[in-house]
Amino acid sequence: MTSPRILVVIGTPLAGSLNHALAHSYAEAARAGGAEVRVVDLAADDVPRHPSLRDELRMPRSDADLPLADDVASYIDDVDWADHLAFFFPQWWGSYPAVLKAWIDRVFVSGFAFRYRERGRLWDKLLTGRTARIVMTMDSPGIWNAWMYRDSPIRSLRSATLQYCGIRVRGVTRLAEVRHRTDADRARWIGGMASLGATDADATRARERAELVGA
C-alpha cells in the first residue's frame, strides 16, 4: 500500500500570510500521519501567465499542437500525482485571488481535468477518484458572506471546478473576520489545521485500503 499523496495549494500572492501558516500546519501534520505532501505556493512559485491562445486551455493532441509550458506541465503532474488536494486562500472582492484563478485556468485544462463528449451536452470527469478540502479566510462576517456574496468563492471552486472535474470535496472551512481576531484566535485556527491534515492523511489511506479490498 502506498502512502497517501496530498497536494497543498496556497492561493495567495502574499508571502508569510495567515494562509501560509494554516497550510504549513496542515502539511506538517499530514506528513506526520504518513502522507507524501507536495506544496504549490503561489507567493513563491511560478504563476502561469494568462492564456492568450485557445490551445493553452487544452492538452496537446498531436505534435502540431502547442506544447505545454514547463511550469504548467509540472503543475499538471502535481495534480495527476495527488490523491487529495487542499486549497488555502483568502477571499478578495467576493472571489479568490487572481493567482489562484490563473493557476486553475492553465492546469485544469480540457483533456486532463475533463473532456467534452463528441455528441450531446455531457462531459467526462477525468479527475474522478480524488478528493479535496477548501480553507478560506475572510475579513467579512460569515453571515454577510453567505447573504451578500452567496458564498461565491466556495461555490465557484467546489461546484464549477472541482466537482465538474470529478473531485469530491471532503470539507470546507471558512475563517471569518480575520482582521478582528486575536493572536490566540489565529493560533487556535493554525492548530485546527493540523487536526485536518492528520484526518485527511488517514482518510486518504482508508479510501485506498477500501479500494484494494474491493478490487
UniProtKB/TrEMBL annotation:
**GO MF annotations in UniProt:** NAD(P)H dehydrogenase (quinone) activity
Q: Which InterPro entries match?
A: Flavodoxin_fold, Flavoprotein-like_sf, NAD(P)H_dehydrogenase_qn
Entry's family note: Belongs to the NAD(P)H dehydrogenase (quinone) family.
The domain of life for this entry's organism is Bacteria
Q: Lineage from the top down?
A: Bacteria, Bacillati, Actinomycetota, Actinomycetes, Micrococcales
For this UniProt record, give its keywords in alphabetical order, as a comma-separated list.
Oxidoreductase
Flavodoxin-like fold domain: from which residue to which, for each copy?
Answer: 5-185
Q: Which Pfam families does the record associate with it? A: Flavodoxin_2 (PF02525)
Q: Which PANTHER family match?
A: NAD P H OXIDOREDUCTASE-RELATED (PTHR10204), NAD(P)H DEHYDROGENASE [QUINONE] 1 ISOFORM 1 (PTHR10204:SF34)
What's the source species for this entry? Microbacterium allomyrinae
Q: Keyword Nucleotide-binding: yes or no?
A: no
Q: Do you know which Gene3D superfamilies this protein is assigned to?
A: 3.40.50.360
Give the protein's recorded name.
NAD(P)H-dependent oxidoreductase
| GO CC entries | cytosol
